[in-house]
Each structure stands twice: as C-alpha cells, then as structure tokens.
Design brief:
This protein is 81% helix and 0% strand. By secondary structure, the chain is mainly α. It has 2 domains: 71 residues, no CATH class; 220 residues, no CATH class. The relative contact order is 0.11.
C-alpha cells in the first residue's frame, strides 16, 4: 500500500487519538487499551513499509505517549515537568540537529559578513551599532576601560532588561519562522552581522583579546540559545513548506509545537546569561583563569543540553522502541 493511501485511511483515527490524549483524565482503561492496540499495529506496518519516514516517527511518538500514560506511576502534574526536561526536550533537540546546523551557518555567515563589511567600510560599524554606542565605546577605550559599558547600569535593573530583551530576541527568531523560515533566517543573519561588526570594532582598536574574554563570558550561553531558537523557527517554517503526507495546517501546528518546546527550554539559559552579564561581566579586573573557567563551564552546559541529553535519550529510545 502506498504511504499516501495508508495515511488517508487512518489519518482521522490518529487525529481522534491525539485529541483524546489532550485530556487523559477522561480516558478509561478500555479506551487506552483500544488506542494502544491500534497504534502498535499501525506502527508495525509503517516500520515495515516506510521505516525511515516521518510517518513512522510520528506513530512511534504517539504510541510511546499512550504507553507512558498506561504505565505511568506518578501523578501527571508532578511527572509532566520532569518528563519535559528528561524526555521531550532531548527528543526534540535530537530531531532538530539539521536545523541547528542551518541556524549556525546563517548566523556565522552574518558574522563573517559583518567583519568583512566593517573592514572595508569605516561607516559600517556605526550603521549597525549606532553612532551613540560607537562614540561611547571609543570614549571608554580612551579612558582605559573599553568594557565600561557593562558597568553603566545597576546590576538588578540590568539583569531584568538584558534577560527580557534576550527572551524577546529568541521569541522573535522563533515566531518569524511562520514566514516560511525566511523571517527566522533574517533575524539570525542580522544578529550575526551585529556580532561581527562589534568584534571588529574592538579588533580595530587593539582590544580583540579582551573583547573575546569579556563578551563570551555571558555570550557563550546567550548566543548559543539564540541559535537554538533560530533552529526552532526553521522547524516551524519547514512544517509549512514541506508538509509531506500531512495536511499543511496540521504539519504547521505539529512543527510549531515542537519548536515551542525548544524555545521554552531556553528560558533558564537566558536567566543565567543575564545574571552573568549583569553581575560578572562588569568585573573586567578578574584574573584570566577565572574568565576562562566561566567560559568553559558555559561550554560544558551547552554540551550537556545539546549533545549528552539528546544522545542519552536516543539510546534509551532505541532500546525501548515499540
């Protein structure tokens, strides 16, 4: 049977199952058993006929969800938060690897263009960062404190402002994916250009090393999170552009839900990055080993989030695939 025919015969049934699973408290044991039997049969057929398809992945996710509901041994409210971080986020990140690569490439391309443009046009940095920012930075450099801008505001208000702004940028990068991924690409590219121009400004003034060590104390988490949010936006845009065998609206809703889970998981990143930028980055007098240690710890956190947890979840999924 062709995949399209198989989907057409069963799509309404799967949608009905999904709707029922939104309110599991209303499901009886017989209903769950009925759903589980039908889904395992459909999954077995899909794995045999279309083993590498999105359909097989979708049916496996739905079947595992019913399986977990049947065999759960903790109250839903308590286990939901745990399962979000233990299973849902790692699973979505594991599936998002290609989009993470695209997001990184767009961002780094913007950064390189920012550097090259600033190197060939003396007015470019001012165009990107504004005259006021550049003038203040040059003044700080002349006064012997090039990173003084990070101490220009009290820690508390600065933390709130930076954290809220970074979350806003991440949500924008995600939401712009609705414009067929082009909007997300623009946000990533524009932020990359800004980073490239910023670094070149300090390189031009002879403070590149100090810039790297200061900016990336908080930037490691902050920039990584923005790139991940961009990947979430690309996932949503891809759901619109390439629905496969699903109706376009359903594909969009499913992709948006997947992307939103990833974006929500980034909130702790922005809180920690905001705290570091507000309370730590301003201390440019701290010794070099301390700065390097903070950056390395941030890199380790990113590795746990992006590599270790998804890999661990994938190994578990491979061992328990139904």
């Amino acid at each position: 049977m062709r995949q399209g025919v198989f989907v057409g015969l069963n799509e309404e049934k799967w949608k009905e199952f999904e709707m029922k699973l939104q309110d599991i408290t209303s499901l009886s044991a017989d209903e769950l058993s009925f759903m589980y039997v039908h889904l395992t049969e459909d999954l077995a057929y899909a794995k045999g006929k279309y083993p590498d398809s999105q359909l097989a992945l979708y049916l496996n996710e739905l079947t595992v969800k019913v399986h977990h509901i049947i065999y759960r041994n903790k109250p839903e409210k308590a286990s939901r938060f745990i399962s979000f971080w233990k299973s849902e986020v790692p699973r979505e990140l594991n599936h998002a690897y290609p989009y993470l690569g695209y997001s990184f490439l767009i961002f780094i391309t913007g950064a390189l263009i920012g550097v090259l443009s600033a190197a060939n046009d003396t007015t470019f940095v001012r165009l990107i960062l504004s005259d006021a920012y550049v003038d203040q930075t040059l003044k700080n450099i002349q006064e012997g404190n090039p990173m003084a801008i990070y101490g220009s505001m009290e820690e508390g208000p600065m933390f709130l402002y930076i954290t809220i702004n970074n979350i806003r940028v991440a949500l924008l990068a995600f939401a712009m994916g609705v414009f067929f991924s082009i909007g997300t690409g623009y946000v990533l590219f524009a932020n990359g250009v800004m980073i490239g121009a910023f670094h070149y400004l300090f390189y031009q003034e002879g403070f590149f090393d100090e810039t790297i060590l200061t900016i990336w104390i908080h930037g490691t988490l902050e920039i990584t999170a923005i790139i991940i949010a961009g990947a979430a936006g690309l996932i949503m845009g891809n759901g619109i552009l390439f629905p496969g065998t699903y109706p376009r609206l359903y594909s969009f809703q499913r992709a948006a839900k997947r992307g939103l889970k990833i974006v929500l998981s980034l909130v702790p990143f922005f809180i920690v990055a905001g705290m570091i930028e507000s309370f730590i980055t301003r201390h440019t007098e701290w010794p070099l080993p301390v700065k390097i240690l903070i950056i390395l710890v941030s890199v380790f956190i990113c590795l746990i989030y992006l590599v270790i947890l998804p890999k661990k979840h994938q190994n578990y999924a491979n061992a328990t695939t139904l």
